[in-house]
Each structure stands twice: as structure tokens, then as C-alpha cells.
Amino acid sequence: MSNKSAQATSLLPQNIAALAAYSSAKSEKLTGSTWLNANESPYAKNIELSIEDLNRYPDPQPQLVIDRYAAYAELESENVLMTRGADEGIELLVRTYCEPAKDSIALFLPTYGMYKVTADTHNVAINGLTQALLLDGSVDEIVEAVGSSKLVFICNPNNPTGSLTPLEKVKALATALAGKALVIVDEAYIEFCPEQSATALINKYSNVVVLRTLSKAFALAGLRTGFTLAQESVLAPIRKVIAPYPVSGVVASIAAQAIAPDAITSMRRQVTILNSLKAKLVQWLNASPAALKILTGEGNFVTLKLADKNYFKVALEQGLVMRAFTLYGEDDWLRISIGNEQELEQVKIWLDGLDKPATSPLLSGQEVS
Q1: Phi, psi for residue 118 in degrees, rounded to 5
Q2: DSSP state of 176
Q3: Measured by CB atoms within 10 angstroms of the end CB, which terminus of the chain is less buried, N or C?
């Protein structure tokens, strides 16, 4: 290490120097022709765009987008904060409500990796609990395990397992943790099971926060747009912390079109198709000796345990890119995003061709995204 590099490193806080950076699906730099590794929508949007006013600063919270999303979520506009993806919502909640080197957040593992990375970045401790406790434990047991954690993150449906925490349990946890912790329900995949949304709890429980995104069912992963939904008393301090101009005018224009009533109708039709294709994929996996265990759950993905971890390399050799990662301490798990019919046909070809174990080593798995 050069002297200049050593000097720069010495300036880093200890929590940043020790931080393991989040590794997204796209950061793995894989090559292929069929991409089913990032839970993206296979549907491209047609957008009309005007860029004539880029010389002006945008509205910090574009009113048309806020109003339309509030209507979609059946909330009031004051309950909606627009962010740069749901990831910024996670960061804002940790930064606003947690005191570094003092507070902790509770997670139910395995789950989305950015909760931990964000907490680590802000020197906030991790209270690592389990999905088994969340799903099977009593409310009293969960509350005892949460302890003094300031934020409780529930990914619902959970990534990567697809499991659902019943709304009655979310409600009971919010009641038990009132005045003690925020219960944050990350609904990145809720459009695939909308009847399970916790948004109806927001008006009744001041400590319930819901995170949303346009990256999945709304087919706008490249736009980086999300929403934090909560009572105004919860959002007010976050509004003090958020950047002065977090949403570009271009992003606001695209988002407004994406959540117009006719666009929402189109999104719901696409979700119906994707759920149907997912059911077909599950049938294929159930019939294939390549899958030892299948976690179907909800969301636009299926997670499975491979009979031979080298099958992933076989897929890559065919140009089929899926998400390999370590789960439950085992490095032979794979998550398949639900693509269009043609893309899933490539999965079928891959499965049908697995007559014998491959010989190439598996590329190492990373955090879930």
C-alpha cells in the first residue's frame, strides 16, 4: 500500500474500514444473454419525456407523483415520501432514528442484505434474529428477542425465501412495540400479493412504516424510485434529513406516468402473467432432479437448493444468468427471477439438459439483492 493510500485509510472510521460492501446482482460482472438474476421485470416501458426545464431545480417532492402514489396506496399525500429507491428509505430511517454506537436494528435472517450494510455504515448494531422466529414464534417471543432495537425490519414477502408474515402478526408486533420501535415492512414485492399489504395499518399505528419501490412489478429498476409510507409524525424528522433535491425532474416525469391509473392497470395485467409463469416454473422444478428443495413463496422469483452446485456453471455456459448465493450456510442455492415466456424457456432447456453433474466450479454467491 502506498503512503498516500495508507494516509487516506487512516482517516476512515473503524466501522467503514471494516465494512463488507454490498454486492448486488449486477456487480458480479457476469456475461450472458438471458438475465434472470436481479428480480427485474421483463417488460420495458414506453415513456414520453420532455427535458426542456433541466436548467431549473426540481420539486423536492413532486406533487403529482406523491398524489398519484397516495391514491394507489389508499393513503393521504402527507403519508408519502418519495426516495431514490427503497434503499434510500432504509438509509434515511437508520440515519434519522438510530444513534451511532448506541442503537440497534432487528433483522430476521436470511433477508435482504442492505439492512445490514446500511446499519454497518452508520455504526448501528445488528440484532440478527431468524425467519423461523418471525414466522413461527409467538409475539411475546419476538418482542423479547427484539429487545431494545430501535427499528424492526420485516421484508414481506421476504427476499430470498418468499415467505409471508401474516398481517395479524405485524399488527400485534406494532401494538407490542408501540413507543419502543418502528416496525418497518419492506413491500418491494407486494404487487405480486397485494392483499397482504400493511398500508392499511399506517393510519392506525404510528410506528408502522411501509417501504415500496417501482423497481419490481412497475418495471422501472433503472429509474431508482421508491416510497416511504408512514404517519406524518414519523416522516417529519426524515424530511429534515433527506437531501434537498432527492428526485430529478426526469425521474419525477417518468414515475408520474408509471403510476397513472391506466399504467397501474397494465402493471396488474403483467403481474397476473408473471404469477402464472412462476407457477409453470415451479412445476418444472418439482419435476426436475436438479432441485432438492424449492422455496416458492410470493414475489417474482423462486429460490431453490441445487442437487449439484456446478449446475450454475452449466447455466452460465448457456448464457443463462441466475442468482447463486449462500443460504443457511450452504453455497448451493439459486434464485431464479421470473422472466417472460421466452426467457423461462431457457430455464427449461437448462433443466432438461442436466442429465449428469457438471465439472466446473460454482462462482461464489453474494448477498441477496
Answers
A1: -65, -45
A2: H
A3: N
